[in-house]
Amino acid sequence: MEALQPVRGTRDLIGEDQRRHAYVVETARRIAALYGFDEWSTPIFEDTGVFSRSLGDTSDVVSKEMYSFTDRGGDFLTLRPEGTAGVCRALVSNGLTQSLPQKVFYAGPMFRYERPQKGRYRQFHQIGAELIGPSEPAADAEAIALGAHILDALGLAGQTVLELNTLGDLESRSAWRAALIGYFAERRDALSEESQARLERNPLRILDSKSPADQALVADAPLIGAYLTERARSLWDGLRTALDGFGVPFRENPRIVRGLDYYSHTAFEFVTDRLGAQGTVLAGGRYDGLVADMGGPQTPAIGWAAGIERLSMLLENAPAAPSAVAVIPIGEGAQASAILVLQTLRRAGIRAEMSYRGNLKRRLERANKIGAGFAVILGEEEAARGVAQLKDLGQGTQQEVAIDRLPAMLGTRND
Ligand code: ATP
Ligand code: MG
Hints:
The chain has helices spanning 16-34, 48-55, 60-65, 84-93, 137-153, 170-186, 193-198, 204-207, 212-218, 230-246, 290-293, 308-314, 335-347, 360-369, 380-384, 406-413, and strands at 38-39, 45-47, 67-70, 76-79, 102-111, 123-132, 161-166, 251-252, 264-271, 280-286, 301-307, 325-330, 352-354, 374-379, 387-392, 397-402. It is an alpha+beta fold. Helix 1 (16-34) packs antiparallel against helix 5, helix 1 packs across helix 12 and helix 5 (137-153) packs parallel to helix 10 (230-246). Helix content is 38%, strand content 22%. The strands form three sheets. Strands 1-5-6-11-10-9-7-8 form an eight-stranded mixed beta sheet. Strands 13-12-14-15-16 form a five-stranded mixed beta sheet, with helices on both faces. It is built from 16 helices and 16 strands. Residues 60, 259 line the site of magnesium ion.
């Protein structure tokens, strides 16, 4: 029979890939806890309305990337393409809109029907953080500082740059929107077909276009700065001051718009030049209208998400496989003692693996292959005396030791 293949755009995480992935998640989880963020897990699928209501009909995600299906009961469901909408839905469903602030960390798979390439998959994984409740720019700065701290803890601070922009409030944006429509309408013929179609409906989307033709026009398009209301401007000033206070360096980039419609005011991306076209590793912004879109009260919030695959690719050093102690019985009579040693070591917190097959040479080869630092070799006669041979596989040295001293000896030597 023909061997089955993984679905296009999905990947198996095995060995080093899985270790890199887990290291990113564990590091982020640890730093998020330092900032007082609690981890939430929301379902991987939601009613389609959770996403279609909030992300915007003309966003790439809603218009062409969602995995939507009708289930056996006739409900119209979607595999989550991002994490924020589900967190806001959960905030409302669980009656937490009156217990603010909520500081949420999450990690898990997301699904988008995109053209697979390096750093872009159909099932990918994100870590993310949402700070729901405060509207002060210091909260934006704190959420961004958390992202910067995680990148730093991963050793990626030097490889990424924070680019920052404001999208203003609704009033600023509608003035800017009118200016953009005016600008692009005069140059309609030079726009990509897709952008011509979105010109009237959502001209901001053109700024996020990946088409080179569009990008050439975008370079001279009107900037939001000229259209900011007084309040929007004061938040923008406050944000930059607060980021200085947190010691987070940034570069202003007036071209940043986010791919989803729910953002206002703060928008930011940590970018790298080491991943080609897929250079954005962590991105987010303020989304003051999203909780209300889910049927909750008007609730300010700021958050971000980062692609775990992209972060994993940037890690300089793959986390090493943990080393184990190999337990090698010689002869049937040593089997029972070997199992006893194995379980005693594991209960003492020492990773230990049983070697089942082959002669001593084969078993030592296998011990080296799994990266064992030590082997405990148990002969029948020795086991009866309560002793074993402890072999240091790095040094090649060997000594007889009392079995009951093994946990203490290996606990300190095997770290
Ligand atoms: P892009 O412009 O690269 O398509 P986006 O604006 O669609 O990104 P967001 O929705 O902001 O991305 O998601 C946040 C992060 O999640 C991205 O910066 C990226 O690191 C990661 N990401 C998004 N889509 C994918 C994907 N298909 N495969 C892998 N990672 C992804
Ligand atoms: Mg995208």
